[in-house]
Amino acid sequence: MKVLMLNGSAKANGNTYRSLLEVGKQLEKEGIEYEIFQIGGEPVRDCLGCGQCSEKGCVFDDDKVNEFTAKAKEADGFVFGTPVYYAHPSGRIMAFLDRAFYSSGASFAFKPGASVAVARRGGTTASFDAMNKYFGICQMPVVGSTYWNQVHGAVPGEAEEDAEGLQTMRNLARNMAWMLKCFEAGKAAGVALPQTERDYKTNFIR
After folding, report:
1. Is 7 a residue whose pLDDT tops 90?
2. What pTM was estimated for this model as a whole?
């Protein structure tokens, strides 16, 4: 089993990466593989609502969204990490995930997910709430921890000083591993995925 993590920071080795790495190291101890996917510092398009998504994913292929969704098809669980610059998730991770979920939602459905927010001080819980909405619309069980999934640090390296934050990451990893193993046991016992109704779509204005 494998967990695909997304570093929503332009800094490849900053505090967001360090927080995800703590999750990854504990996952390995639990017998679960992991990969940290870097969004990087290149521009990321936002979703235009063009409706041109195809089996290949988003119609725009000049950034890493389709590369990520290809990996998502094979992953068993997800952790999305974001830095908090202005009391909400980074613009790049929101644009990235909007397009990933809009174009390839089936790759995420019924797989457990968690979000992690990293800030100097405030805005983590608002960011945590915003990120969790991707899970809610895609039938994804949400993995929690012993505190809201947040780590504090301003400049790279300061996350090391947040002992409780890193503890929260390790407990998140343990809970993710437990959930994945429960799902695997359910599959082995013949428990099928729930049936999904899609007969109705009611607009507010008609």
Report:
1. yes
2. 0.96
